[in-house]
Amino acid sequence: MIQQVSAHPNIYRIRVDLPDNPLQYLNAYVIKGTSGNLVIDTGFNRPECKRALCQGLQELGIRLQPDTSLFITHLHADHSGLVGLFAQAGCPIYMHPVDYQYLVDSQDGSTWKAAEDNFMREGMPPAEIKTQFANQARTFSPDPNFPVNAVHDGDCLHLAGCDLQVIHTPGHTPGLCCLYLPKEEIFFTSDHVLFDITPNIQVWYHMKQSLQRYLESLQKVRDLPVRLALPGHREGDTSIDGRIDEIRAHHDRRLAEICQLAALYPHSTAYDIAPHMTWSMRGKKWKDFPPTQKWFALGETLAHIEYLVDHGTLRCSEEQGCRYYDLVRKEP
Ligand SMILES: [Zn+2]
Ligand SMILES: [Zn+2]
Questions:
Q1: Same domain as 218, residue 154
Q2: CATH code of the domain in which 143 resides
Q3: What is the pTM of this model?
Q4: Which ligand is the nearest neighbour of the Cα of 233?
């Protein structure tokens, strides 16, 4: 399903459904120029997504050939999964090198192994870690053997007849890059700013303090003049500053909640704390969470715990390979 979201320049959204995934669908954007096109993000590496993306491109009259470029905003498989289609056709592919390196490292499983070992130290039972092997982020990930044009913060790309500014916003992933059209005030926010849901913040082995970095990255784009914000999932909006303030407030509430829980349950692991937190899986108890959601929830809990430890609010002690947390002072 395609929808035109801007006439000058010509920008379309291809809705790529993500079956059995709470994100529901990915927005792949296409800037259609007179002498070339730009596609932003792809959907998972699975037949349903491939069909939706290819059908959308076909409806737009775009053939995959070297005058069409692909910009991958970040490493997550719902954004990068179908990169192989573009690589095979000789399309130039743009991505931040840190996220590209994660894709390369995940090829031999080392990225996932490091995450599993870490979650084990945070109290996740080994049986539950095993259930993660069916995680869609793993099963529908791309083949990372593609040539990449590395992009960095502040780069200006001239693609599909547009001047696009690369804004590196580490947090959701270490290498997430948004694209901004300064003249038109159009902002492709990817998963950095979402409007109907809150972007998930995890812990990463190449990036310490992901929540702190994320909050800094929110601030970095808060005052950008934006006429049209185009997010990676769900619907967009124009009030980017208002939404950023809401997301900030959400993380403040989470930090305060963890402080309360750490006071209530001293000397707990992150895995002990996570089930008591407020999650948006309405009506579902922690034990009924799908395994993937438990994984994301524990990662999100940990990102907040890491922030509190770094700010001296919580203390971490390690005993027999497991980490326990205690409250040092009441405020985040
Ligand atoms: Zn993402
Ligand atoms: Zn996403």
A1: yes
A2: 3.60.15.10
A3: 0.95
A4: 2
